């Protein structure tokens, strides 16, 4: 079986934005939104304090994913500004079920513009057609309404909720984690209708 090219995924253009494999040089842009407490409020990391944290996360969290059978992750690029404005990625895999989980984050200046919804849809397409996953899952804390909108607009089906505790540097969030999925069959079926 041919090894999947996880290290260099295909570039994807949509409107004035592009998905391309995350690079170490993106750390400055990652730090720009990663230091924002509002952007990182519902994430299990951040806010970042030093730019070296962003560089370290690319090298120590994103790059090693290839060894675990996952793509490095996509940088979302504002083509006109040649700037990374967020990431969308498969951050974990359940290999015995051929299932991957999506995570994402985007700079606050780009909230509410439909960019992340389109980026997630493009990643779903790659997950089923290029990486040949059977199922993709995604999760969000119930208080994260923005994330919920992206997930619902991207074609996922709600499965269940579980109690969850998110421990941040200066706070603890007690909430429900809402879990969604989309299967390859559902994806291909919705493309025909």
UniProtKB/TrEMBL annotation:
UniProt family annotation: Belongs to the acetyltransferase family. RimJ subfamily.
Instruction: Record the organism.
Output: Mariniplasma anaerobium
What one GO molecular function would you report for this record?
Answer: protein-N-terminal-alanine acetyltransferase activity
Q: Does the keyword Hydrolase apply?
A: no
| Record GO cellular component, one term | cytoplasm
Q: In the UniProt record, does the keyword Zinc occur?
A: no
Spell out the SUPFAM superfamilies in the cross-references.
Answer: Acyl-CoA N-acyltransferases (Nat)
- Domain called N-acetyltransferase: residue spans: 17-185
Q: What is this protein called?
A: N-acetyltransferase
Name the domain of life: Bacteria
- Kindly state which keywords UniProt assigns to this record, in alphabetical order: Acyltransferase, Transferase
